[in-house]
Structures are given as structure tokens and as C-alpha cells.
Design brief:
The complex is a heterodimer of chains A (178) and B (197). In chain A, α1 runs antiparallel to α2 and α3 packs across α4. The radius of gyration of chain A is 19 Å and the shape is globular. Helix content of chain A is 79%, strand content 0%. Chain A has 178 residues and is mainly alpha-helical. With 197 residues, chain B is mainly alpha-helical. Chain B folds into two domains: 108 residues; 82 residues. Chain B contains nine helices and no strands. Classes of the chains: A mainly alpha (178), B mainly alpha (197). At the A-B interface, α1, α2, α3, α4 and α5 of A face α1, α2, α3, α4 and α5 of B.
Chain lengths: 178, 197
């Protein structure tokens, strides 16, 4: 099981290209659909927490999923698995390929990969939207969140904090009424 | 710098970066630059630019990529052997991950304990739509000139990129093709197409 976790996250780390969120489609495919280790709802919860914590998002996410599936050892297996491809590749470049960044073919390969990765993130966004409990009262929340981050440049952490405070106030008010 | 000091500094610098690096990979970059280039002088500014470029041309999170690279260079530039430089890159990479472990294990333990409590359930219910918005924002933010190849109207790369974007979406959303396959095909296409054009 631990080895299975390590290999799965090694694969995810190897194909996480173009920033932390590029990991989401891979995680969803491998961890939710193939292995059934998590549900989509769990996934949304973990993302909110991993995003609000400091550190590397991919590492945070791996630690969380690993902990959920197999406790402390699971979190170590997942995080090491996800980080290992980076470490190996960067070490290989530092040791042997000083002029890697001037390599034309590698550059061309990534010119093809980058636009595809954006679409890969769009797919789970739509899928998770259906699992986020959206209705006629809440549909505007993801829209407003996306616009605040994209257009105005608000950090996601502030929006997460605002949602937490709002939810707690709502909960207290409901308790008082009851 | 003599023996043990540089190892301790390497550990502490990347531990700090892991602890205070909020806001994802690119948010961490300025912190890394400040610590590694300006304070410690382990690498030059142009070497730092190289790391950013290499990170964009390799898989994996930029936080880990830069830790591995800087760990290597710091020890190598300090006049030590290649084997020691490799140890330096491992040390830096694990140091940047360590705060995540400590924090996440604390949060996870708390979360597992209270996740069925009504208040925590309410908070999670409120957070889910926000996370969907965060993902949508990531898509919008990534649709930039750097990834698509510039917004000039006569730019071939822009049109190819838009085509790849639409095809990749159809492939994953409608045809349920796995992300790894899509990445491999897009990479193969880019490698062939842009090399031949």
C-alpha cells in the first residue's frame, strides 16, 4: 500500500507541469477515479486547506491525501513520491546539462504542453463545480472568487479566510436562533 | 564559508522559505530570491533567472525545483565536491518540505478529529464553492502570453496554442482521456511541429 502510494504520487509529480494546480487533474484521475482513495468532496476540502497553508502546494496536497489514506507513513510516502521526480530531474540537469534551457527541442515540447495543461485544469473545475453544492443562492460565489483573484489580484487566502469567518458567524447565529 | 556552517544555513534558509512561502510557486519566488541571491549570495541573479526558466521546462513544483538547484549550486560554489553538492540539493529539498509536514500533520490530526462536528461541516460547505472559483481563476491566470505565445494577431503559436487548448479540453472532458496521455501527445506534437515549422 505504501509503495502503491509512493508510485502513484511519483507519477503525479512527474506530470505536474506548469504550477501546482496542474496536479489537480492528475490527482483526480489517479486518486479519486482509479484508486478510489478519496471522494470529490474530500478533494475540495483538502484543496482549501492546502492552499491556505504555507509551503509548496503540491507537497501540502500530497501530505494531506497520504495522511487521509494511510496516516503519517502515507503522508511521507506521498510527499516523497511527488517531490522525487523534480529532485532527480533538476539534479541531472545541474550535473550533466548546463545548457538545458537553451535546448530548442525541449522548448518546443513545452510550447505544446503548456496550453494543453490549462485545459486539463478546466476539466476538473467543471466536474468539481457539480460536487460543490452550488444552487441558485451560491452560484455567484465561484464566479466572484474567480474574478477577485484573476481581475483584482486578491490572494486566495483572504477569500478562504472570509468564507471561514462567514461560515462561523452563520453557524453561531443559527445556534442562537435554535 | 567553512564546513558545517553552510549546511546549517542551507537547512535554515529553506526551512524558512517553506514556512513563510504563501501563495504557491510564483508567490514563493520573491522570497527565494531575497534569501538565496540577496542575503546569502549563493547564486547570482542570472543563475536565479536560469532556475525559473528551467522550472518552466521541467515537471514538478517550482519550490522543490529551485531548492534542489540552489542546494547544489550553493555547495558547488562553496568549493566542495559534486557528491557534497548532491547532498546539498537533497538537504535543501527536504528542508523546504519539512514545515509543510509539521503544519499539515497538526492540521490533519485536528481535521480528522473534528470533521464531523457541525461547525466544521458548515465551514467546509462554505469553502467548496470558493475552491471551485480558485480553480477557475487558475485557468484564467494561466491563459497568458507566456503560455500561449503572445497575443499578436499574426502569431502562429497563438493559434496553435488555442487549438491545443480546445482539443485537450474535448479529449479530457468528453472523451475521458487521461491527463498523462494528453500531456504526452501535446508534448510530442509541440516537439515535432515547432521543430519542423
Amino acid at each position: 500500500m505504501l509503495f502503491d502510494l509512493f508510485i502513484t504520487f511519483f507519477k503525479i509529480g512527474l506530470f505536474t507541469i506548469g504550477g501546482g494546480y496542474a496536479m489537480i487533474p492528475l490527482l483526480q484521475r489517479e486518486v479519486v477515479e482509479h484508486k478510489g482513495w478519496l471522494k470529490d468532496e474530500d478533494f475540495l476540502d483538502l484543496m482549501a486547506i492546502a492552499q491556505s497553508a504555507p509551503g509548496v502546494f503540491v507537497v501540502n496536497m500530497s501530505i494531506f491525501v497520504g495522511y487521509r489514506v494511510r496516516g503519517k507513513r502515507g503522508s511521507v510516502a506521498c510527499a516523497l513520491g511527488a517531490a522525487m521526480p523534480s529532485i532527480i530531474i533538476i539534479l541531472a540537469i545541474a550535473l550533466f546539462a548546463g545548457n538545458y534551457r537553451d535546448n530548442r527541442i525541449v522548448e518546443n515540447v513545452f510550447k505544446g504542453i503548456r496550453p494543453a495543461v490549462i485545459a486539463l485544469i478546466l476539466t476538473p473545475t467543471i466536474r468539481l463545480a457539480s460536487k460543490a453544492g452550488l444552487n441558485k443562492w451560491t452560484w455567484w460565489v465561484p464566479v466572484a472568487t474567480a474574478l477577485l483573484i484573476w481581475w483584482i489580484g486578491v490572494s486566495p487566502i483572504w477569500i478562504i479566510l472570509a468564507a471561514i469567518v462567514g461560515a462561523i458567524l452563520y453557524y453561531i447565529l443559527k445556534l442562537r436562533k435554535a | 564559508m567553512n564546513g558545517i556552517v553552510i549546511w546549517m544555513k542551507l537547512f535554515w534558509t529553506f526551512f524558512k522559505i517553506g514556512l513563510f512561502g504563501f501563495g504557491g510557486g510564483y508567490g514563493m519566488l520573491s522570497l527565494i530570491q531575497n534569501e538565496v541571491v540577496e542575503k546569502q549570495h549563493w547564486i547570482s541573479n542570472s543563475e536565479f533567472t536560469d532556475i525559473v526558466a528551467v522550472s518552466q521546462m521541467t515537471p514538478g513544483p517550482i519550490g522543490i525545483n529551485s531548492a534542489t538547484y540552489v542546494g547544489y549550486k550553493a555547495i558547488e560554489n562553496g568549493g566542495m565536491s559534486r557528491t557534497e553538492a548532491m547532498l546539498g540539493s537533497l538537504l535543501a529539498s527536504f528542508s523546504v518540505m519539512l514545515p509543510s509536514f509539521i503544519l499539515m500533520l497538526l492540521i490533519s490530526a485536528f481535521f480528522m478529529h473534528y470533521k464531523t462536528h457541525k461547525s466544521v461541516q458548515t465551514v467546509l460547505k462554505w469553502l467548496r464553492p470558493v475552491v471551485v472559483g480558485m480553480l477557475a481563476a487558475a485557468v484564467l491566470l494561466l491563459l497568458n502570453e507566456e503560455n500561449l505565445g503572445g497575443f499578436q494577431r499574426d502569431n502562429l503559436q497563438l493559434y496553435v496554442s488555442i487549438g491545443l487548448f480546445i482539443l485537450a479540453f474535448i479529449a479530457t472532458y468528453f472523451w475521458k482521456i487521461g491527463p498523462i496521455k494528453v500531456i504526452l501527445i501535446a508534448g510530442l506534437f509541440g516537439g515535432l511541429f515547432y521543430s519542423l515549422v
